[in-house]
Structures are given as C-alpha cells and as structure tokens.
Q: What sequence folds into this?
C-alpha cells in the first residue's frame, strides 16, 4: 500500500456571506484546499481531519481561536471548510477583533481522520474578512454597506496588506511573497460572460494570457514571449489537472497519461452516456492519479470514428492518429521508415520513449484493461497507447503502440476497441 506523506496545496480563501449584512454579521469565511502526498498525488475520497487556528500579530503569535473539522476529500482531493463553523477547541470566533491586528491562519491535518495532526503551514490572512470586521472597523461604525449579496464602499481607498493605501488607487494590494490571482477561464467560458464591463480582466487558460474587455471585444495583454509554449505545464480547465508537455520534432505531446473522467469498475464496459468514464488499474483511483486513466477506444473517441479528432482531450489538443505516431517515432528513431510495418519497430525508439528516456515522452508502464474479462494486466511491465485510427484490415481493431521495460524497440499493432489503454494527447 502506498504510504502517504503530508502536504497541502492551498487554493484560495474567500469570504462567505451567510446572511444579509444589515440583518446579521456573518461569523465564518470559506477555506478551500487540496490534500496531496509528498510527490504531488491527490488524496482522493479520503477521511481527513483539520485543526484550524487563528494567530494574532505574527506567525509565532498568540492563538486566539482553534477549531476542528472532520471531512472527506472529493474525487479531486478537494475540501471545503467554513472557518468559524467547526468544533470549537479554543476561543470564540465572534469575539476576534479583526481590526485590532493582522492575523495568520495555521493549518494542521491528520490524513487518517484522527487527532494526530501535523503542521501544514501558517499564512497571513491578507484579505481581511471585511464583513466580520464591519462592527469593529474605523470609528466604531462600519464603512461597508450592503446591497443584497454585495458589499460596497464609496469613500477613500482600500488597502489589503497595507494600512496606508495610495490616494491615487481605489484598491492597493501589498505583499512581498504572494501575487494577485485573477479569475482563470477558458476562451469559451470567457465568451459566456454576459455584458462584460469595459476593463473587465481575466486570465485565459486557452491562450495563457491576461485578457481585458475594451467595450467591443476581448483583447490579449501579453506578447509572443508570454504565450503558452510547448514544454510549459498544461492546465486542463475541466478539472484543474496539470500535465507536463514535451516538444518532439515539430509536434507537442503530453508527457503524462491523460486522467479525466469518472472511474468505473473494470468489469463494466464504458458507454455513451454523456459522462467521460475511465478505468483505474486494479480499480484503484490512486493508480489513475499516478499513471493516468485507461479508456476503451470508443469512449476515448466520444463515439466518433474520425481520426485525429479532439475526443476526450482538452480544448486545443487531439487524439494522435497512427500517422502522427509514426512521425514522432521516426523523429526519435530514424530507422523506423515504414509507417505500415506491424510488430517491433526500430532500434531504440522504445528505450527513448519510456519514463526516463531521452525523448522526454515519459511513457509509463500503466498496463491495460483486458477487453473480454475486464481484468487488469501488465502493470509495471508494459505501456499501451491508443491511436485514433481504425485498422483498415480489421475494422473491429484500432492501431496502438506498446512499450516494454525490457525491449528497446516500439511495438505497433491493432487491438480490440474494448481494451482499456492509456492516452497521450497531441497539440493541434
């Protein structure tokens, strides 16, 4: 069994407005985090417990409040906590004077869901919980007003991380160790914003550029050098998964196996039901986290037969055709000259494509899901990768590639569409 170590990736802290400010001051704020192990694997669907402490004045300052949360991570390792609504251990949340000092949040976690907490980190609450501070702020009266679910302030400047915002700025954010994180949207999500205001800004996950709206259209704020380039991390906006990428010749490949969708047991065939389904070796989600999902050909293709289509790849990427696999193989190993040759090919193509090989492709021995019985085989010995091309000599089969840990060559042949194999997407 894999031994998990403790680390925590913090996503964001935002204010949770539980009720109308005029009726009642809210007494909590939302905290969201992703639990990972020491090599970055997500702790999925797991009982965990958190001990949250609020420290005053400094990282080593007095703890003025502590509470406990027992939760279960979701399929992405995500947890959502409402700080202020946990099981109280120390202090009273409503008595914290947010305007009296700076405050820090200390996170401790037990991945077994018990009370053997280990320290994850301490960070400053740079974004003061304004609604919580409202009754204490300024000269004993709130400077903030409410309008439905919104709060607003019409006079003066607002400072975050500074008590002396510049008079030329409506908002000044000061920090020496963190940045400003705008909303991150794909082009499709951006274009779905209704009636964008002039000057509205987002970070575009499709182009990896900041965008702003000029009143007529969206404009890019970064030049050529700031554009996403092959070799950069690919963020899949559908689930936030990160993938390494590599340029091989003129092609840009994912350097990790695709891992998208909802896991089903190996005994069940994937179906055209509107949900991307995947297999995880031995029906263990942790294997998908490390080695990617396994997919039947029709599911991968989203029930089309057109070679080179997007299928279940992220926007801007597609499922490599048999010909595109050959182009990559020929670049890596020029002795592979016949694109139609079946069986073991080349001299050292496989050796260069496996994990740790010189190509950067990082092929993993993720095994396969057997087409008829649904059992899982060859984990740690072989890696199998679909192409999006049907075998013209037997249209029930599709071309695939195989890499092995004891063979320096690469293998090409056809396989039943009902096998569950790995997927590498190729940039459009």
A:
């Amino acid at each position: 069994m894999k031994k998990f170590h403790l680390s925590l990736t913090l996503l964001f802290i935002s204010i949770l407005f539980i009720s109308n400010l005029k009726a009642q001051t809210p007494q909590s704020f939302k905290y969201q985090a992703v639990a990972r192990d020491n090599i970055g694997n997500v702790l999925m669907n797991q009982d965990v417990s958190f001990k949250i402490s609020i420290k005053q004045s400094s990282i080593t300052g007095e703890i003025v409040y502590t509470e406990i949360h027992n939760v279960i991570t979701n399929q992405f390792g995500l947890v959502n906590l409402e700080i202020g609504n946990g099981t109280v251990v120390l202090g009273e949340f409503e008595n914290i004077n947010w305007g009296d000092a700076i405050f820090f949040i200390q996170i401790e976690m037990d991945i077994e869901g018990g009370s053997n907490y280990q320290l994850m980190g301490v960070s400053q609450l740079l974004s003061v919980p304004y609604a919580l501070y409202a009754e204490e702020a300024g000269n004993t009266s709130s400077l903030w007003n409410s309008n439905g679910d919104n709060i607003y302030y019409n006079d003066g400047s607002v400072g975050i991380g500074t008590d002396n915002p510049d008079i030329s700025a409506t908002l000044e954010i000061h920090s020496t160790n963190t940045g400003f994180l705008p909303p991150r949207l794909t082009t499709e999500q951006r274009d779905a914003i209704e009636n964008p205001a002039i000057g509205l800004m987002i970070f575009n996950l499709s182009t990896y550029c900041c965008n702003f709206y000029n009143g007529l259209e969206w404009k890019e704020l970064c030049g050529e050098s700031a554009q996403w380039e092959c070799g950069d991390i690919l963020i899949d906006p559908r689930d936030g998964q990160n993938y390494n990428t590599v340029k091989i010749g003129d092609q840009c490949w994912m350097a990790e196996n695709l891992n998208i969708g909802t896991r089903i047991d190996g005994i069940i065939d994937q179906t055209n039901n509107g949900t991307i389904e995947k297999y995880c070796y031995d029906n263990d989600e942790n294997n998908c986290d490390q080695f990617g999902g396994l997919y039947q050909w029709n599911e991968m293709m989203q029930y089309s037969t057109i070679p080179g289509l997007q299928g279940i790849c992220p926007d801007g990427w597609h499922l490599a055709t048999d010909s595109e696999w050959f182009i990559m193989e020929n670049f890596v190993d020029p002795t592979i000259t016949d694109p139609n040759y079946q069986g073991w090919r080349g001299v050292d193509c496989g050796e260069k494509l496996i994990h740790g090989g010189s190509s950067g492709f990082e092929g993993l021995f993720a095994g396969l899901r057997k087409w008829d019985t649904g059992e899982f085989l060859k984990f740690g010995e072989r890696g199998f990768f679909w192409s999006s091309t049907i075998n013209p000599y037997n249209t029930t089969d599709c071309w695939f590639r195989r890499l092995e840990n004891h063979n320096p060559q690469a293998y090409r042949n056809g396989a039943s569409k009902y096998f569950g194999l790995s997927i590498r997407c190729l940039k459009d």
Notes: Residues 184-226 form one domain.
